Task: structure prediction
Amino acid sequence: MSATAFNSIFFNRAHSSNKDLIKQQNVKSRIKCSIKSGIETSQKNVRVGVLGASGYTGSEILRLLANHPHFGVALMTADRKAGQTISSVFPHLGTQNLPDLIAIKDADFSDVDAVFCCLPHGTTQEIIKGLPKHLKIVDLSADFRLRDVSEYEEWYGQPHRAPDLQKEAIYGLTEVLREEIKNARLVANPGCYPTSIQLPLVPLIKTNLIQTSNIIVDAKSGVSGAGRSAKENLLFTEVTEGMNSYGVTRHRHAPEIEQGLADAAGSKVTISFTPHLIPMSRGMQSTIYVEMAPGVKTEDLYHQLKLSYQDEEFVVLLENGVIPRTHSVKGSNYCLINVFPDRIPGRAIIISVIDNVVKGASGQALQNLNLIMGFPENLGLSYLPLFP
Ligand SMILES: NC(=O)C1=CN([C@@H]2O[C@H](COP(=O)(O)OP(=O)(O)OC[C@H]3O[C@@H](n4cnc5c(N)ncnc54)[C@H](OP(=O)(O)O)[C@@H]3O)[C@@H](O)[C@H]2O)C=CC1
Ligand SMILES: CC(=O)N[C@@H](CCC(=O)OP(=O)(O)O)C(=O)O
Result:
């Protein structure tokens, strides 16, 4: 289908009244956010802001948007790097015709349709609370992921600053909550560990193939998962040639994962979860140990996952026996999964890999904004991985 045909389908579907249609066409004609990516400026008919564009997830959104036929970057913010050009901060994006980085307080959102919010958790609630209500928002931070604000306060150690907005937020695990996301104004994009863990477990729990009482997750992340700001434990000397677990028994992603698994089970679920930092820049593996329901075999888990994801572009069950590797998802929006029999009867081992910055953050965020705006959800995302 041509991009022009997409445009007319999109505008007819998403904007039913003539008034809205004219408004959108005006927005389209005003667009100046040209991008030297082979996609014509005139086709970029949705104006997008990237808040936190000088960070890892913000820059990854910009990389993905370079190949998006409809989303043009109208505005980009930074904190310490406000006032700088994108090519000085990220030379790999310097070929793109992007606006300069500005402080959020100087941003004018009147001509912007949607924002990706790529800001640190804890500061995001206050910022989103102050944004104009016409904006569609995909928030990559953890600030709106936990439905229960008291649980947020317990795990994040500070009061929730936007409890009313929390009620409106839809959790953005795309393959699981697609229909809800389509109608959302504010999407709470999942954390990277929660994405890699829930994608394999939710279908197995929903179909009662595994016990929910004894789930153990051993997960590993590349260092970009911790963001771009300088921290002592992220120095090259601290990270290289070694690995370490962190957040043992108390990582803030545990309640997020348990919330999603409890929704699938219809009852409370508690997991053992230990994350590790390993010396690579991007990538994430979750190795998940589960106890199967009585009479269930590993092949049943495999077939159920195959069935659940048979129509999904980005969640892929590998061939029997093939081990998922982080190398095989680098730079892409894929989640690769496989299931193996444990030597202990009745138990299975599930391995799930993603790129933490793509499917674990910016890629899934783009999938979600595509859905909200009525576009095919894979637009801008059909990259093959960068193996090796
Ligand atoms: N990295 C990852 O793999 C994942 C990250 N996330 C979440 O996404 C969000 C962004 O992460 P990431 O890109 O890694 O983080 P970075 O630290 O790399 O980037 C943070 C961005 O926010 C800006 N910023 C920092 N403080 C403020 C402030 N007080 N007001 C306005 N802007 C501010 C920074 O600007 P400047 O650089 O100019 O100071 C920068 O642009 C976080 O909430 C993170 O937890 C979610 C999933 C995975
Ligand atoms: C390696 C590393 O430090 N990873 C981060 C998780 C990244 C992520 O998904 O973070 P949010 O929940 O903040 O969005 C961590 O463990 O806190």
Observations:
- Residues 3-189+360-372 form a domain with the Rossmann fold fold (CATH 3.40.50.720).
- Confidence is low (pLDDT under 50) at residues 1-38.
